[in-house]
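Chain and backbone:
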Amino acid sequence: MPLFFLAAVWQVPTRSSSTEITNEKDFAMHRAVANEDKFDRGPYMNTKKFFKLAEVEISSGKYRDAINLLRRGISELGDRYRSNGAIDETGTRLALAEIEESNNRLDVAANLLLSVLATRLNMYAEKSRIEGKTDC
């Protein structure tokens, strides 16, 4: 890897209040966020990226950041995951997450949103499998 590329990636401004990268996991996460506009592998892969980044944020106790990533993932996937005849109860969990967030219980809200996005990703993957799509 050329040295100028590594230096450019290392100094990428982040969306958090601190621009200091303290470990390899932070470096990988910030690099992925910095490169997010370069992803063009379909809605499933884009959404999966937000899901994985949110998992990292939740494990680090950064619930507000996780909530923002999960909302972006939910928006990215949209209603593409829906299929005829499938029961979708994720709207209820989404409403509960909003209530928990308004009550400042960000840990609960983040985990609810994570479960919403996990379910929708699984539904999308199953729908794609049935329809013979190959983007997941």
User: Anything to note?
Assistant: Residues 43-136 form one domain.
